[in-house]
Amino acid sequence: MSIESVAVIGASGHLGPTLLLALQAAGFEVSAVTRASSSYEPPAGIRVIRTDFSLKALQESLRGQDAVVSAIGDAGLDIQMTLVDAAVAAGVRRYIPSNFGADYSRGVVAGFEDTPTAKKNLLDYIGAKATANLSFTWADLTTGLWIDWALVHTPELTGFDLANNTVSLWDSGNEPVATTILTDIGTAVVGLLGLPEDAVNRPFKVASVKTTQNEILAALRSTTRQQWDVKQVSTRDLLQEGHKQLEAGDIWPAHMSLIAVQLFEDGAGRGVHAEPGKGDCRILGVPVRSVESVVEIIVDAWM
Ligand SMILES: NC(=O)c1ccc[n+]([C@@H]2O[C@H](COP(=O)([O-])OP(=O)(O)OC[C@H]3O[C@@H](n4cnc5c(N)ncnc54)[C@H](OP(=O)(O)O)[C@@H]3O)[C@@H](O)[C@H]2O)c1
Questions:
Q1: Among 220, 180, 190, 184, which residue's Cα sits nearest to residue 28?
Q2: 100 lines ligand 1 (CB under 6 A)
Q3: Which pLDDT tens digit goes with each residue over 32-83?
Q4: CATH number for the domain including 83?
Q5: pTM for the complete prediction?
Q6: What atom in ligand 1 is closest to the CA of residue 53?
Q7: How many structural domains is the chain composed of?
């Protein structure tokens, strides 16, 4: 039975709006689930469901939905199991949890274990629910860095400060990272909802472009035709900085430093989870992008 109605949790966040657009364009009947306290107003054609996120209220809210896509922010990760319980109880047939992150199977840098552990525990929980309820299916999506979003919004992680034409190169700047642009995540999610039952219940990994900091810098130089100031920072120093930030309770800056080490440390091999154009990218229709085309998107929109 095909999926027609989809509820998106976290629709008002960084990723949510892109998912709404992709799902709507693909012809799904889309609802946005938001906290009762939220002032969020959805775009035209999207129904809004306001809820207090209790199990009972969520179950009522999700009744009649064929699928749930959760893009809830990290602040809401601890209620994800309740969301899954509610989805199962409401008869939802496919669940995509709020992962959309990195692949931690090659190790996690010290100090950044909490989020990967929470996401893994959730997947184990979802897997057990699917084993016990054959009509409930799931698919998890690893995307790596959202490169177009991250370059604009997280200079502490990517090293690129687009406002001041400066870049901090982590180690040599040559460590490869597999990344995905936001619209391609939308494409992948639409693809996941279209797969038959026997093709899901597993993690999927996609990427639009595999690149390095030095390649991004070269593309920025040629696209902007401006001067870029470069400084070198060792990931050993960055790791120490991240630990100091953690001790001081500066959680967001700490996470930026630690994720930068996680992905960009020279020779660590933790930044490539997928090859663009291959494997799950092909199954889900995620196109191969050049680093130049991604930089052009950013420069056109933001610089
Ligand atoms: N790979 C990457 O580069 C990357 C980057 C960023 C995030 N991510 C991952 O992508 C996923 C989505 O992240 P995001 O940045 O788009 O999320 P976000 O913007 O931080 O939050 C999304 C929405 O979640 C809802 N929310 C927040 N806290 C909540 C809580 N305590 N209880 C219930 N709802 C809550 C809010 O919606 P309402 O106010 O409308 O209820 C919020 O707008 C996360 O798993 C995150 O780890 C990956």
A1: 190
A2: yes
A3: 999 999 999 999 999 999 999 999 999 999 999 999 999 999 988 889 999 9
A4: 3.40.50.720
A5: 0.97
A6: 33
A7: 1
